[in-house]
Batch of 3 targets.
Target 1
Amino acid sequence: MKVLLLPILIVVLLSVGDARAVALTPSQIERIESLIRQAMAANHAPGATFAIGLDYDVNWTEGFGLADVENGVPTKPDTEYRSASIGKPMTATAVMELRDQGRVDIDSPIEKYCPRFPPKPWPITARDLLSHTSGIRAPNETTELHNTTHFEHVSDALDIFDRDPLAMRPGTDMLYTTWGYVTLGCVLEGATGDEYRALMKRMIFDPAGMTETRDDDPRAIIPNRAHGYIVENGVLKNSAWADMSSNLPAGGWVTTAPDLVRFMNAWMSGKFVSAKTQAEMLTPYVLPRHNGTVDGYGMGWFLDGYHGMRAGLHGGGTPPGVRHRVLRARKEACHRRVLQCREYSRKDAHRTCGSHCRCHPRREDTECGQVPAVGGITTVLVRTSRSHAALNRATGYSATATRIPKRSCRAFRSRLSE
């Protein structure tokens, strides 16, 4: 059995709607650190980085354990982790920002902006790509998820899949696909005339103050980059090498816990898109040819319930795997983000929840639901009972982000002080 072990990254943001400065108390920090140690032990994680934001600021961040076991390098607040599919909401946000500016028509055929994409029997729009209803296939679980070819330009990665037939007519169903978001990278380049990395820096990272987020180039010297590990027959080993340049717009970044706080702070404050567009991205997508909605997806975010409230979340995958979670609310409310890294065998996930299901943390017990995942990879989310520590478990490589619009902080604070 192989189990991938990477440092865990958790980000929590609280916005209390009070002009007074807010800080965590020593007892709250002690409680948080206790939950961290429990999560690390449960996940057999060699290291972890956590960050907490209060009132749109980074108020506390800390590293635990090791980011590089071989060399005894400890994790730190600025340890760099693979973003995994949290890159999809970032790319979706950039597209919708251009739509707000009148620079992208998300209902026009994508060839208008990405002329190298070959014609298909039916037109594909950016709206189809944003909602995973384009019919473009998902990556395979061998050579494509574990890509070793380096692509200098985002559009060059289209060669992997753009000549393949569509799996369905666009707009008839949902098929979650990393390649659809890679195509959105080509759309962004065509609409702006900028190279994708440069436009994301200009449109997303710089406005949010994300100075430690960049492309995950395996050839580059990136200070503080975390290592990934697997366990084979109880022995810790280095994980397999992979080049993420093939799916950069779908999540091929490296980032830090504080930078993830900054991204969601900017998203929440309306720095990227209008309130109307935010609501549109968090509304179940309407299938134009079914007269119905995609169950649990908007544009750039999965949608679900959380303790009786509406939530947005995102699942995806990279080798090595990284998991995210975002809980967010304004004023007297909480915003919380979790990023975890680990791989389980498919057998483990089936034993937990059965074949091809995701367990959603709607209650403090595990609950299963049918959700598609990248390349057929099953994702399982687990919320521990009697605590607000969220532990994600995955088959294959998985990333999850959750965003909560409204939530009272009183229960969360009382848990921290228990």
Target 2
Amino acid sequence: MKYKDGVLMTLTVTKWGGAKKLEPQDLGLKADEVPEFMRLGKKLLIPKEEREAFVQTENNARNALERASFPFPVGGARFVPNKVLMKILQELEAYKRVYMDLAASFRDRYHLIREDMLAKYPEHRDKLEPFYPPVQLLGKRFSFEWVVFVIEDASYQAKNGEDVAAAYEKFKASLETQFDKFLSDVVIDLRFQVQETCLKIAERVKAGEIINAHSIGAVHRMIDKFKTLNFIGDQTIESKLEELRGQLNGGRSAEDFKDETARQALREAAEAVARQAAEIGDISKITGEYKRRIQL
């Protein structure tokens, strides 16, 4: 079986941490003078804002990948549906450029950053200076890469012997079990996001709060995201979401939802979707139909 509706992706980002573990002697203590309930921190070799720039860019990239994918139960990979693959690749390319530009800037300013830190703490210079690597080595400390690969059954040749054949069959069965759970988790995750957004909009109406452009936009974004990531084909929820979208379309704006009739119609539609999304009794049927489709 080959799963053609998406690929697996891993993102690997490395950086020089700009810190070293704090040792007891750095504080004028012996090792046995540090109580067991205490944990020593780190010696910072660069200003925290320098490191935070790299951390923030990496976090932004990982968040972008997570928003467009699902956690896969093998190797810490993310399953990216084909519909969003090119979009996430473009986003990762943009984040890589930012990250590597930060790395180049850091290398260019490294000697200044180093000297500023050492000058700022002259009494600790002898404890800090040995931990600064040569600038020539910094280039190898920064990287931003991803790997994309497809999911296929393990295969073997008869000439490899019966033991190998049995092992491959075991691998295949294990992957099948994990993939079944993954499919169920995808349906549950998407339905939870739908339920959460719909309950929020219903609660706003119930509480008499204003339905503004931001609220309407959040519902549209949720519906669009569901349709994009719904590679399994949860048509039950998708059809309900189209009914909900019908309450928002027709040129309706936030101003239109000051009318009580429109507000209650929106609330009823949102609650209906939320109730349906909370149901999980049909998940096995949905994932089973999907597996039959991809096996054709």
Target 3
Amino acid sequence: MLLGQVFQPTGPWAPWLLGLWVTAIGACIGSFLNVVIYRVPAGLSIVRPASRCPRCLHPIRGFDNVPILSWLVLRGRCRDCGAAISARYPLVEAAVASLFAILFAVEIVAGHADIWVALAEGPSVVQAAERWCLFALHSWLLTTLLAAVIIESDRQRIPLRLFAPLLLVRVLTLAIFPRVAGGDDPLALLGASALGGTLAWLSHRTAVRSIGLRGWMVVLVAVALAVGWQSMLIVTFVVAGGLAFARIEYHWRSRSSLPVLAWVFAGTLAAILGRVPVRGYLESPRQPQTSLHVFDAAAHCQRASSVSSPLEYSR
């Protein structure tokens, strides 16, 4: 009886189980991101050879390649030669897993995107699928930006081809679900691109360590197309404040402590996380506190039928 309640698609445990699965997927993607961060700037293939110890070149066994856990079990050392393994590997995996968990809570659970509830309670399956599509787009965006921030912190040139898959994913979302992030409004997309381009030019002119005008254009236009012009205003505010802080810091200390793309990442994360909770709070004046309990399945089911379109705010 208890197992039936746990694995029931619309049961109270369903969001937790799905959230754990999404978090595990995020940790695996974080493990792959470590490969991208190391190999792409060096011009190496991300497919071959398989992961191996950089000292003894012994291939890493499958059971030694489990995200986070393997590093803890091996105590941060290679099983074969005992060489130290940087703590950055599990930290990146944990960071990406946390991003996936947070986005799942904000955009799926609080965004009423449960497919099973949609079938049973009223909201269309298309709306739920659109929310999952938005979750995938934003997850890809933040993961790509995190990789770029770490590459920049390593004092390496950021390969712009890193953002090519993100732009491809955005094109696919426009083709399949045009309403995602205002994709059905050409003027909104044009305005977002223009805002991203303007911010790119200003960032190139004012940043202490610029990544080049072309680099700024690729990064910020990709962000603008993924979050929409309204959320891009938040990104602009955070990036402008960050660049101003970096300029002041450079004046007093002759150096900047943070990579410039860290401000783009922070602004993008703030824009994404600040959209759905505010909208949910405004649309439920009788029970504003329910927006805080993102895993409360009962509140989720009660409010699901009252939401007309989960993507209107994204435009």
